[in-house]
Each structure stands twice: as C-alpha cells, then as structure tokens.
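To assess whether ligand presence alters the predicted conformation, the chain was also submitted together with pyridoxal-5'-phosphate. Input:
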Amino acid sequence: MTVPFLDLRAPYLELREEIDEAVGRVLRSGWYLLGPEVEAFEAEFAAYCGAAQCVTVGSGGDALALILRALGIGAGDEVIVPAHTFIATWLAVSDTGATPVPVEPDPATFTMDPARIEAAITPRTQAILPVHLYGHPADLDAVRAIADRHGLAVVEDAAQSPGAVHNGRRIGAAPSTVAFSFYPGKNLGALGDSGAVVTSDRQLADKVRLLRNYGSRVKYQHEVLGTNSRTDELQAAVLRVKLSRLDEWNARRARVADRYLAGLKGLDLELPGVAEWAEHAWHLFVVRATDRDVLAARLGEAGVGTLVHYPVAVHASPAYQPLGLGPFPLSERLADEVLSLPIGPHLTDDQVGAVISAVRDAV
Ligand SMILES: *Cc1c(COP(=O)(O)O)cnc(C)c1O
C-alpha cells in the first residue's frame, strides 16, 4: 500500500457536486471580484472564528503584510517572529521594510517560547508575531501579557490552524488580529491562492480593506498607497463549501493524530506535544528523529510519503543570511530532526495503519 504525503484531489472529489455547483454559480453570475460570494464568505468565516470582521486578501502572506502595514509598521521598526516557522512569516515583516527579530521555540509544541521574548525586545520593537505552527496554538496568554507590559501589538500567523482552540476560544476570536492562509494544502484550502485577515478591530479591518483594493473605497478615489490583493469570487464560493466541512475534517485529522500518538509510543522518536490549554488543528503531524534522513528514506521505500517542515532554519537560508542573525541552535536542530508524516481528513484507516507499521519497522 502506498500512502502519499498529501492528495489534493481528495477534498474536491468528496465535495464535487457542491463545488461544481458553486463554481458554476459564479461563472454564470458574471461577477468575479469583490461580490456577493466574498461578502458571504467573509461574514461566515468571521462568525466561525468568533470575530466581528474578516477581510479576504490574495494570500496568507499578504494578510500578514497588510496587517503590519495597517498598524503603521515599516522601515526602522522591529517585529518579533519565531525562529522556527515557514519563511513567509518573516517575509511579511521584511515586505513592510521592518526587521524580523527571531525567538527560539518551545521544542515540545514547536511554537514561540514566551520565556525568550522579553530578551528580544528593543526600543524599536512594534509587534510580536506568534505562529500557530503545524496547527498547535502559540501560548497566546503569555505572549499577550508580555505585549501589554511593553505596549506592543500582537499579530498572529494562523495560516496552519483554522479551527484550533486556545483556552476554550477559537483562533481568531476577539481580541485577536490574525492572518489566515487558504493555500490549497492548508486545513481550509482554496483551489489557488487566498488568505484573510480576521479581527474585531473595525478600524484595522477598514484599513486592510482599503489597502487590498488600490487604497480605494470608491472607484477611482485613492486615499492611500494601496495594492491589489484580493480573493476572487470563484475562490470565495469554493471556500464557503469547504468551511462547512472544516470542523468535521479537523476532527478526522485529530483521529489520525490520536492513532499515531498511540501507535508510535515507546519508539526512539519524539512525538508532538499538545499543551493542556490547546486543541490542535493537526495541519501537520511532526515527529523528531536524530537520524531523520534515514527514517525518511526507509519510509519512502515502504511507500509512505513524508516531508520536512522545514529543512533550513529561516535565518540560515540564503535569503536571510545577509542579516547575519543567529546562531539559533534549537531551530537549527529542529531543521535537522523534524519529519512530517501523512495526515489529513482523507487518509483511510488502512493507510494510517500502514504508516504506523512502516514507522515501527523503520525506527
Ligand atoms: C502557508 C503559510 C504562510 C503563507 O501563506 P500563503 O497563503 O502561502 O501566502 C504563512 N505562514 C505560515 C506559517 C504558513 O504555513
């Protein structure tokens, strides 16, 4: 049996009738941008998150960058970011002209270690940008307490965690300001690029709304230097269908994770931790192994697809080497040791069993 790391056709095939109907509805409408589907999805996703406002944009990276721009962050400012994350988190900061200042992770949950944040704060710091990495919420209570003490904004990167819960509240619920990505492989995936800003801060949402559409509220009246970063009607119509399944699909992910956690116990392998205040969205199931590359090769031979999220620590990538940041030994070690096993709502029970057997044989 082969188990691909990810099968992007499966979600479409499960919802084929509804998605085909939604796409046909948009095609026939003749309205392709900033229309009724976007408006409806924004209302539905804000309600899902427990927030007052949702503004869809072109991608998750744009959502982050536009929040930072709306907060007035730019050249000369610093934003605290996780050392261990996908590079897009940092790129959004760099995009504004500000400088990313990395903080090492808590290795149990892979999210930013709040105990290390204060040492990174300088007079130039404007915001802290925690990432709910792999679907596990960052320690928001601790991050917010530090931010309040220093008068800093908190901007969350929830690209990997729609539906995750922190202390009984969904990621995105007030008082958060959050960026989501609807890249096809994410838990809530469009059929192309898309993202959203979710907040209960009306003024901030209005600024992002202005920025995403050429700085214009009324056609050909341009109030600020905006850009073009929008989710189109086709994607919004598809996202509405997908959103109606998000909780069910996250629950299916959690069942796979529970089987992995039980079936892989006691091996020479570190399993992902879940904080007691967290409900994981299980975007990725990430284990740690000192001989990671050998394990990945053996799993590949057994027909099990794996990926590494991420093989190079962001500060060590050629893109960021000129900043001369680091060393960040924890993040560098994670880059050498992490391995993502297949997880998703469409894995069959047999496939999950095959992954467990293959890992047990390979370790
Ligand atoms: C996917 C991702 C992004 C960027 O989202 P895009 O929609 O691809 O721009 C940002 N941060 C994290 C942690 C991500 O996984």
